[in-house]
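Q: Could you fold this chain for me?
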Amino acid sequence: MIAPDSGSPDSPDEPSGLEEGERVVDAGVLSERRARRAEAEVASLRRQLADECGDGGESEADPAGAPPEARGTAAEAALSASRVAAHRVEDLVALVSELDSQLPVLEARRRTAELGARRAEEARLAHERESGALRAEAERGALALRAAEERATSLREELAAAREEARAGADRELAARRVTRELVATATTALAQADSRLAAAEETARALAQEAGRETETRQAAQRDAAGARAQLDRERRELRHTEERLMRALAQSGARVRELEARWVGIRPLSASARGALATEERLRARTGSERARTATLGQEARLARSSTVRSAGGARLAPSPPAGRSNRAPRAVRPVAPGEGWLGRALVALVRRDPVAGADLALALLPLHGLYSGEAADWDLVLETSAWRVTSTEPGRLAEVTPLPGPRGRAAKFRLEADVAAFAALLSGAWPRDARRRGRLAVRGSRRRGRRTLRAIAATPLDLRSASRAGLWLDPGLAYLALARAISPAWTAEHRFVVAHELTGEHAGSWFVSVDGAAPLTVTATPPMEPAATVRCSDVAFLSLLTGEPPPRGEKAALRGDVDAIALLRTWVARAQRGPA
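A: Sure. Below is the predicted structure, expressed as structure tokens.
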């Protein structure tokens, strides 16, 4: 039997696909499958037909062995099978012909389906790429969103902090305004009190000026009297000298005459009248000489009293001594040019070394750059002072030398090396010649002795002068400067005073120093005040030496004074007087 055709195009068991693109592809594939099934069925029918025909031949070959009914039935069955097979073959041939006619169309459909599949695959791949790009973009957007959220959180925190800071700043500003208002009220009150005190001081000053005018007239009259007394005294002294000379000559003559008479009238003879007259004349001359000397002493005492009366007022108030002729008493006397080996600073340096060697060494090193101002050549040498090493460099004549610390001597890198102790080096710096400085301590030159001796002579010939240091821009520590001045200020000047003046510096070398005046004791300089400062002087570090020496300060650098102005004026007067030296 021939199996029914299960590969018919109308078979409901064939899959039809789920999507439109896949439906086209499946139709071509099904057509090919159907064609292959049809060919297979044709081949199968042919084999069956051949098998049946072969069976029929065998039956015909042996007709005697089978009964006639069986042979007829078999023949009919074979005939009907052949007919069915022929019909089936014809159907199959028709189907194959139909399939062959449809094969180009199916092939075209297959190619179209393959092209559509490729396009669909490309579209799918493009869609996947686009989806990946979109996913990456979405991920980047998510990252950016998270970063933006974090930034927003940070900005919110900063905003909150800024608000807190602004609120705190507003509170501080309000507090500052309250303090400012209180300070303004206090300052206004103090200003009113100061105005009243100033008015009273002006009245007192006018009264004192009138009193000073009267005292000046009295002093001028006393000076005129004293000048007349001095002139009279000089005339009487000259007359006295002439009288003494005449008396001495007369005494010599009378003595010779007496000796001659005594030689002639020895024995018990009484003296003659001429001898007694000569003796009387000698006695009178001696008495007159004594009276003239007493008178001279009296006139000298009167002249001294007249001079002393010019410096005291009638009520006992002390007045300033009259200035020399041609000089105003409103400005302090200018500091005299200091010659090498002279001046207060060299003496103060030597005295400070004796009292405090460490501070003396610091002051000597601070003043050493001054020798570059007077050096005629560039220099580069080492200084070994006690146990410390220093490099001294002078690159250009007429400029301050540079003194920098070293961990140790440089050896051959330096032109020479000066080894000294503090006493000998201070003596050399204060103007002593090298051979005199060696008597004070150790002073030796290592290396080029010619350069060393020339430098030693240059250091000894350098005048120590704070005015030159101020003009050259030398920085001098206020503690060292006041320690040097303390050695030059006489305790007799400060005997009746006791106060503290604070000196505040601004700038690179900012700090505070407290100068204490305690009666006849030497001035002291400390970093903390021993008692409440009576006054405060505030200036920049570049204006300190100018203020100390009375030089004009740099442009825009003025000192601010606060507190007891009289204390500042006293200290400034002592400083200027110490720098002037003995009159």
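A (continued): Residues 237 and 296 are 7 Å apart (CA to CA).
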